[in-house]
Amino acid sequence: MDIVASAVRTCLGDGAETFDAVVAGRCGVADLPYISPDAVHVRRGYPIAGPSAEDPLRASRLLTACVAEAVGSVRLAGRVVALVGTGLGELRAVERAFVDDVPVAAERLHFADAVRAACPAAEVRTVSNACGAGGHVLALAQDMLELGDADVVVVAATDSVTESMLAMIGRVADEPADRVRPFDVDRPGVLLGEGAAAFVLVRSAPAPLARVLATGLSCDAHHETAPDPTGIRRAVDDALERSGRAPEDVDLVLAHGTGTALNDPVEAGVLGAVYGDKPLVSGLKGAIGHTSGASALHSLDVAVRALRAGVCPPIVGLRTPLPEAAGLRLAGERTAAALRTAVVDAFGFGGVNAVTVVEAVR
Questions:
Q1: Quick one: average pLDDT of 26-47?
Q2: Which end of the chain has less Cβ packing within 10 Å, N or C?
Q3: Do 8 and 285 contact (CB within 8 A), yes or no?
């Protein structure tokens, strides 16, 4: 499955701006707008700068911009399907409808209108699958293309910051985190980012940006929130088997890396068991926060750019690696390397795990 176009929005800018900023080690953390920090016990996050008045359909606006940019750069022919992954949908619009009496039409809580504003011909499906949603729509896209159920698939994802998710983060922290520090021994916890991404995918193209070989999935239902190494390993093994690649073929891993007490040691243990010290390991959440259902596609865009540039970005915020990651090649700084094959990890509450293998096309 070939990637022929992509578009991204994060707190650091568009796709090229985000990649350049992450490679340079920049952090997009800032004070949260719109939501009272005292109400949620969280003061910082990775928001996209916007107007003083909050847009009640912020996730939709970000998505429309990305889809318009992605589809505007290529010619679409045949049956076009758009698959949108999200963790929260337009939950913020629901919150404002109840608390601030800002009305919202029920059909706007999913993303058909947002996609069709930029791509009128698309058949649109929204998949709400926690923080693994972007990876899951990649898997569905590959199925549709290989089975002939679509000629073009626009794979997209979007999420914005919501008060209820902030409140959940605030309840489990004695002190609010100041930033995300993935795989760091002093990691203070996760903070939310926001953003969107869109990719145009076809079964085969003459000069693609990169090729998605496979996505492995698992849904272990081990715990409401805690990750399970067995379930994660199942998704990794599934991805490698479907892609026809061995662990030693992998040059770069874009880890899920949430900077939380539970995720990082579990993920580090699985990465060490599967890959040893062969691939470089990086991650984005120290730079752009946890962008929920969009996080897999944000990582995919950076992975594609890293493969094409031959540059592994650093893990922004990493100072002292945690003991469980001692055997990994964590990218503490910008690293030039020959990169051909990359893996993107995305894990969600309830064990909805997705692991994607992407390869450079020379």
A1: 94
A2: C
A3: no
What is d(CA 288, CA 62) in angstroms, rounded to the nearest whole number? 15
Cα→Cα distances 343→65, 237, 279, Å: 27, 12, 10
Give the phi and the psi of residue 28 in degrees, each rounded to 5: -95, 15
The residue type of 257 is G
The residue whose two tokens read 């903070």 is: 191
DSSP-assigned states of every residue in 227-258: --HHHHHHHHHHHHHHHT--GGG--EEE----
67-to-75, 117, 139, 264 alpha-carbon distances in Å: 13, 9, 19, 32
What is the phi-psi region of residue 258: left when phi exceeds 0, alpha when psi lies from -120 to 50, beta otherwise? alpha
- Asked if the model's pLDDT at residue 289 lies above 90, the reply is yes
Residues 191 and 44 sit within 8 Å (Cβ to Cβ): yes
How many beta carbons lie within 10 A of that of residue 75, not counting itself? 8
Domains, the chain, ranges and CATH? 2-359 (3.40.47.10)
pLDDT of 301 over the 90 cut: yes
Residue 175 phi, psi dihedral angles, 5° rounding: -125, 135
Interacting residues of 326 by C-beta distance below 8 A, sequence separation 6+: none
Position 355 pLDDT exceeds 90: yes
Tokens 């715990």 belong to residue: 223
Residues paired with 218 in a beta bridge: 353
pTM: predicted TM-score of the whole model, two decimal places: 0.97
Structure tokens at 33: 């707008």
With CA atoms as reference, report the closest residue to 63 among 199, 256, 162, 192.
199
- What is the Cα–Cα distance from 219 to 100, expressed in whole angstroms? 36
Question: What percent of the chain clears pLDDT 70, i.e. is strictly above it?
Answer: 100
Beta-carbon count within 10 A of 18 CB: 27
